[in-house]
Amino acid sequence: MVYMVKDSEDFNSKLEAAGDQLVVVDFFATWCGPCKVIAPKLEEFQNKYADKIVVVKVDVDECEELAAQYNIASMPTFLFIKKKEVVAQFSGANAEKLENFIQQHSG
User: Fold this and answer.
1) What is the pLDDT of residue 26?
2) Residue 1 pLDDT exceeds 90
3) Any idea what the CATH number is for the domain that residue 14 is in?
4) Residue 57: in which H helix or E strand, if any?
5) d(Cα 45, Cα 69) in Å, to the nearest integer?
């Protein structure tokens, strides 16, 4: 399941609930073309790696404070968080790179 967070409190509770699982955070915007392109692949990866990852989506227009906290300048930007620590990040709608990062950091 892909979670859409509504605020910082919701985001932090998702990180807490993830435990040792990798949290893949998708910072996106509803008006962002590349974000719309990558969204189905992200859902596919959530299903494929369901036992290893938690996917959290953050709308940068709805959660501006979270976007600022993580210095998000372009969309989509993916953060990979393990045990509440950012272990990697990249920007762009590159499905192959996204899957490689998931495989690399979910083990």
Assistant:
1) 98
2) no
3) 3.40.30.10
4) strand 53-59
5) 26
Nearest alpha-carbon partner for 95 in 30, 25, 42: 42
* Amino acid identity at 7: D
- Quote the Cα angle for 75-41-104, to 5°: 85
The catalytic residue positions are 32, 35
In whole angstroms, what is the distance from residue 39 CA to residue 64 CA?
A: 20
Alpha-carbon distance of 64 to 87, in angstroms, equals 22
**8 Å CB contact between 16 and 85:** no
**Residue 96: is its pLDDT beyond 90?**
yes
pLDDT tens per residue, range 5-61 = 999 999 999 999 999 999 999 999 999 999 999 999 999 999 999 999 999 999 999
% of residues, the chain, pLDDT over 70: 100
Domain count, the chain: 1
Instruction: Show the domain range for 51.
Output: 2-106
What is the rounded distance in angstroms from the CA atom of residue 55 to the CA atom of residue 45? 9
